[in-house]
């Protein structure tokens, strides 16, 4: 039989076949997760050298050494390495040093005395692959390294942020662990506070997601239709308010769509971050986001539901600085479109960063001793600078409130 006479492949797919296909994929991904995240505990925080501690605290190495070795001191002494001249500190110890030694303004939340209101950030973007979830996690981690206590809430049914926090989205999390029970019944005992889980990262808590969170997209419009007085856009905001007393920041990660849950997040947030990869399709997608959101916002304003964001920040991510890159052209578009909204900080692209994503990790998860840590420093430092910029915006407000 000639090659041209081979029978054509039958590519037809019935809906009834998809269930078995999904089961097979689920088994495969479970195996992959086991390989990537094993052994338990699946994620561990980094350790910090004295050099890193001096950078975080803004004090010289000699002072760190003196305070760490001074008898009777109330600062963690770390663990002695090698000949005794080097020390490493756990994440919890490093955060304690930052809170007690650095000149970074502290809010008092670490001592349980919360005189100020925490702030709510949201990351939003329609385009998949925009680094939205990774950026959310990096901002959360970076803010904790400034001594802050942070809660992340995963509003994306894909639950990628939950996995970055070290949770199997389908094994460690049920729909009852998410915000969904509160969406169904805002009067449940404990509210959103009862859904908070600690993570492997000191100072960072999470309310995880699950694929059943899609159900909120049916419940919220149905409840609005059945009860004209129901405010579908304010459910999450009412749930967050009581929890703000326990955190400096609550950061919301959203699905890449203008869903009902995304709208809840946008109406609950004090400020917004949009990660943007400087590629033409990503830029066009960002324009679509603002076009659709503005139409929805106009409806809110007509009903006297206007609100003010403390800032909206567009962060260029995965920036390719090669001479053949389209980044310079798209950056110029973004500058014209977003003006002062466009951050002066840019996060460069890194092939090592992509490999880290496959391991459910971020640049902050690596210790300096790891082989690729130096390579990723060019990615980590801009993220730290961006976290400082975010923090500075709200520290100015906290000082006024004090």
TrEMBL record:
Pfam families: AAA_31. InterPro entries: AAA_dom, DNA_Partitioning_ATPase, P-loop_NTPase. Residues 119-280 form the AAA domain. PANTHER family: P-LOOP CONTAINING NUCLEOSIDE TRIPHOSPHATE HYDROLASE (PTHR13696), PARA FAMILY PROTEIN CT_582 (PTHR13696:SF52). This is AAA domain-containing protein.
